[in-house]
Specification:
By secondary structure, the protein is of the alpha+beta class. It is 55% helix and 9% strand. Helix 5 (86-103) packs parallel to helix 9 (200-221), helix 6 crosses helix 7 (151-161) and helix 6 (120-132) packs parallel to helix 8 (167-187).
Length: 335
């Protein structure tokens, strides 16, 4: 008799089954599960359709890690369908971008230096290590002994730990960590983040932001342009970024208690925000300045990928305040 799968085991294997990438005895278990739960076949059909779509849009010479890449995409797509929030959907989208960027990396380019100073190989390891700390290294036993949460210290430890790993192993560890983040985000109100419990949507959006930025870093290192994300993804990241500005101003010593600024972000994810110019400030006061700028470039400034002098904006009102806000925007950027 074929042992039946649990729902969790089905979730783990369905993507591979949809690709016909399982052993016969595993296929029998999946088929037995579907026979007892006919609605589960919808998952298989959706994932097979996704595989066909991805194959049609990515006409490339298959890299060695093709199977892991496609399986990762399918699992992410499945989670996106059931995403509990725009933050989780944004995380799926950012991870899909990074996955595509990594799939195009050839062995000869692993040591290419990216805009943040790490090589492509090191940057992938950094992302796996930073993602794994979100959920106490769930499904990431190889990183469980690394307890540092400081960005620089953790990165050094991760790079030391992965120095002899195959690149495919690093990518697989990143896949495990990102999947754990999404599962936790769909199941919990808060998650571990730098030794604190933080709202799951906030943590997931932070992870999305860093993943998107570093996927672009890899593209730049490979001679390609950074890729835009969807309106929903940019709107989610931009909204989070606005909550950071008062703290950024405090770090720079340029707060203005009692004052506010208005942001009008244009392009994909457009929105308008009024922010306090000091932590805990009242946002109901009349803004002393209005800053109009593209969402994409704003996110790049937050990530320290655009210099102040190159940031495109239109200012109405107190130009000195606008200059201070834009100058402080990258204060929390790490790599």
């Amino acid at each position: 008799m074929t042992a039946s799968l649990t729902p969790e085991e089905f979730d783990d294997i369905v993507a591979a089954y949809a690709l016909d990438a399982v052993e016969p005895h595993e296929a029998s278990k999946v088929e037995a599960y579907i026979a007892s739960r006919p609605d589960a076949m919808a998952d298989v059909d959706r994932l097979r359709a996704a595989a066909v779509w991805y194959g049609a849009t990515d006409s490339l010479t298959p890299p060695p890690r093709l199977r892991a890449t496609v399986v990762g995409r399918l699992r992410a797509a499945r989670i996106a369908v059931a995403a509990a929030s725009p933050a989780v959907a944004t995380h799926v989208e950012a991870c899909d971008y990074l996955r595509e960027a990594l799939a195009r990396v050839t062995p000869g380019h692993l040591d290419d230096v990216t805009p943040n100073g790490l090589t492509v190989r090191e940057l992938a390891a950094h992302l796996a290590g930073m993602e794994s700390q979100v959920t106490d290294s769930i499904d990431s036993e190889r990183f469980a002994a690394i307890t540092e949460v400081d960005n620089d210290e953790r990165t050094r430890s991760i790079l030391d730990a992965t120095r002899e790993w195959d690149f495919d192993d690093i990518v697989a560890e990143w896949e495990n960590a990102t999947a754990a983040t999404r599962r936790a985000a769909n199941e919990r109100d808060t998650m571990r983040w730098f030794h604190n419990q933080v709202a799951s949507d906030v943590v997931t959006t932070f992870r999305s932001f860093e993943t998107w930025v570093h996927a672009g870093d890899i593209d730049v290192a490979m001679g390609r342009d950074r890729r835009m994300l969807s309106d929903i993804a940019f709107a989610t990241m931009a909204e989070l970024s606005m909550t950071l500005i008062p703290g950024c101003l405090q770090i720079c010593g340029t707060t203005r208690p009692g004052a506010t600024a208005k942001f009008v972000l244009t392009g994909p994810g457009a929105g308008e925000f009024v922010i306090a110019l000091a932590p805990g400030g009242d946002t109901s006061t009349e803004p002393c300045v209005t800053i109009v700028a593209p969402v994409h470039e704003w996110c790049m400034r937050i990530a320290d990928r655009i210099d102040v002098d190159d940031f495109p904006m239109t200012v109405t009102g107190d130009a000195a305040v606008a200059a201070d806000v834009v100058a402080a925007a990258n204060s929390l950027a790490m790599l």
